[in-house]
Amino acid sequence: RVKMSAEEILVHAVKLGKNFCLYFDELECDALCKERTLHRVLRNVKSQLLVVRPDLNVAAFEDVTDQEMQSGNGMHFSIHCYKTTTPLAGMPVAFSVQVEDKSYYMCCERERGEMIVRFKEGEVPKEIPGESNIIFFKKTFTSCCSKAFKFEYSMERGMFLAFEEEGCLRKLILKKLSKDEVDETMKISL
Where's it found, cell-wise (predicted)? Predict the structure, then answer.
């Protein structure tokens, strides 16, 4: 440890390997490790619940009756929180949901030049060694609205989960947010 201007800084030993490559000893890797899981419903600004329908390949915010909510089919999400070595980006999370007896995880894929939100059958991994198309950074929606959040896609900064009106559906999408803009379609309550 070295003391500089009243601030303590941890110093690590380094060594030179083959071809004079620089190696650091005892540093944490950038892998994401699952820390805990929250079980929640996701609501938009209109208090509608996010419902996943894998058979129709759609996830949309819908008005849901109490009876439908009791069944919980495709509505009760597991939010998997991961530990990270870079906390400034926000809490890394992945989403999964049960539909009937199957588990589906949320991911993003590029299709015809556009980023699409998908739900694929399978489990969320306990560890993610590097970048992943299932990770979103959970951030408070605004400084005065700490109970609502926005979720930034980890592989494309500035792209957030949001909803878009498509006919009678409020479909889950990824949407670009310009700096310092407040977009109510990105506001998600847990």
Answer: Cytoplasm; Secreted
From residue 29, alpha-carbon distances to 25, 26, 84 in Å are: 11, 9, 9
Angle value at C-alpha 100, between 95 and 105, nearest 5 degrees: 20
How far, in whole angstroms, is CA 97 from its chain's centroid? 13
Please count the CA atoms within 13 angstroms of the CA of 72 that sit on its side-chain side: 10
The CATH number of whichever domain residue 136 belongs to comes to 2.80.10.50
Report the alpha-carbon distance of residue 190 to residue 174 in Å, rounded: 18
Q: Give pTM, 2 decimals.
A: 0.80
Number of separate domains in the chain: 1
Q: Which domain holds residue 34?
A: 30-189
pLDDT by residue for the chain (190 residues), tens digit each? 444 455 555 555 555 555 554 444 444 445 688 889 999 999 999 999 999 999 888 999 999 998 888 887 899 999 999 987 766 778 999 999 999 999 999 999 999 999 999 999 999 999 988 889 999 999 999 888 778 999 999 999 999 999 999 888 899 999 998 877 889 999 999 9
Strand partners, 51: 60
Q: What angle is formed at CA 56 by the lines to CA 113 and CA 82, rounded to 5 degrees?
A: 65
Does the residue 4 lie in any domain?
no
- Say if 177 falls within a structural domain: yes
Whole-number Å distance between alpha carbons of 40 and 76:
6
